[in-house]
Amino acid sequence: MLLHVVNRSPATSRVYQQALAGMAPEDRLLLIEDGVQGALPQLVRYYAGLEGRLFALKEDLESRGLLGHCDASVQVVDVDGFVTLTEEAERTVSWY
Amino acid sequence: MQEHHDDCDLLLILRHGPHGSSWLREGLDAALVAAAFGRRVSLLFMGEGVTALMQGQQVGPLGQKGTAATLEMLEMYDIDTLLVDEQGLSCLGLSSDELMLEVECLSPSALARVLSGHRLVLTF
Amino acid sequence: MATTEIYRYLTIEKKTYALDPEGYLVDMGDWSPEVAEALAHEEGIVLTAEHWEILQVLRDFYVRYEMAPAMRPLVKAVGQALGPAKGRSIHLMRLFPGSPAKVAARLAGLPKPTHCL
């Protein structure tokens, strides 16, 4: 299982498509930096099919005032959770 | 062939075309360094990165060096696993027989397998 | 990579050639067999036919690929051009002791190979 990390918003960048193309059925996806916009209910549709495997970084949501606006299907993790996700994955692949 | 790309050390994903930025050159540099140190390297041209393989590339308008000569050099570094994202090609209306090097086209489902089949994956 | 910084000059019969801090020609166009011999002299190498054919392989490599090769591709290029007996690192080590890819590139008038440390 790989952890994929996306730091761009699906509203402005198509990098999310590359991440999705590179993901195996058990892989997980973590949204960080501007990527956390993808956790908003209006944008989370770009990640349809990732239920249970889609994460967003709490600190980046918080700093953008988006923490209370996440879609319920997104699991919010803090930096410690990020570390745990990294440990649980064989490798991490960054998409930026 | 015993050394199929699934056994390789390093997968470099090249997602940018020539001339627009230095990403492609930096990705190729990383590939050459790894190969010079004896690592098995695979390259995956993805998205816009497939344009790195266009035939007939020239220097830039201000005389900037391109990357086509470096791509031709890959075989001298024994980098012969060249993979191309089929979707990236079709998005641009290109086909693999128009490319300057012999490549293996990957369907969307094969992409994920290639990523998990390498010990290290770097995106450029 | 050759830099444009001039560090010192090589003088051959009153003509001077700019060298970068690592002794590579600043202007590749300055290269001639005489320059190669003078650079070889600095390395304590007397160029023989066996040296010259390697320098030619390097110059051909640069024309084709626009880069000076690291050791592995140099060995491969020499093997392709001059046959398997010469396409071996021991042969290059004997001719260009120390770091053959770097030394031979310098004598061939090429920039320093980018991909070897």
Structural class of chain C: mainly alpha
Distance between the termini of chain C: 11 Å
CATH class of chain C: Mainly Alpha
End-to-end separation of chain B: 28 Å
* CATH topology grouping of chain C: Arc Repressor Mutant, subunit A
Total number of helices of chain C: 5
Main location (chain C): cytoplasm
Protein name (chain C): Sulfurtransferase
InterPro entries (chain C): DsrC-like_C, DsrC-like_dom_sf, DsrC-like_N, DsrC/TusE
Enzyme class (chain C): transferase
Structure description:
The complex is a heterotrimer of chains A (96), B (124) and C (117). Chain A is of the alpha/beta class. Chain A has a single domain, classed as Hypothetical Protein Ychn, Chain: A. Chain A contains three helices and five strands; from the N terminus they run βαββαβαβ. In chain B, strands 4-3-2-1-5 form a five-stranded parallel β-sheet. Chain C has one domain: Arc Repressor Mutant, subunit A (Orthogonal Bundle). In chain C, 47% of the residues lie in helices and 9% in strands. Chain C has a two-stranded antiparallel sheet. Chain C is globular and about 40 Å long. The relative contact order of chain C is 0.18. Chains in contact: A-B, B-C.
Concise summary:
Chain A has 96 residues and is α/β, with parallel strands linked by helices. Chain A has helices at 15-22, 58-63, 79-88, and strands spanning 2-6, 28-31, 54-57, 75-77, 91-95.
Topology overview:
The complex is a heterotrimer of chains A (96), B (124) and C (117).
Chain A (H helix, E strand, L loop, with lengths): L1 E5 L8 H8 L5 E4 L22 E4 H6 L11 E3 L1 H10 L2 E5 L1
Parallel strand pairs in A: 1-2, 1-5, 2-3, 3-4
Chain B lengths: L9 E5 L8 H14 L4 E5 L22 H6 L7 E5 H6 L12 E3 L1 H9 L3 E4 L1
Chain C lengths: L7 E5 L2 E5 L13 H11 L5 H17 L5 H12 L6 H7 L4 H8 L10
Helix pairs in contact in C: 2-3
Task: Give the tags.
A: 96 residues, alpha/beta, 22% strand, C: 117 residues, Arc Repressor Mutant, subunit A, 2 strands, 9% strand, DsrC-like_C (chain C), DsrC-like_dom_sf (chain C), EC 2.8.1.- (chain C), cytoplasm (chain C), DsrC/TusE (chain C)
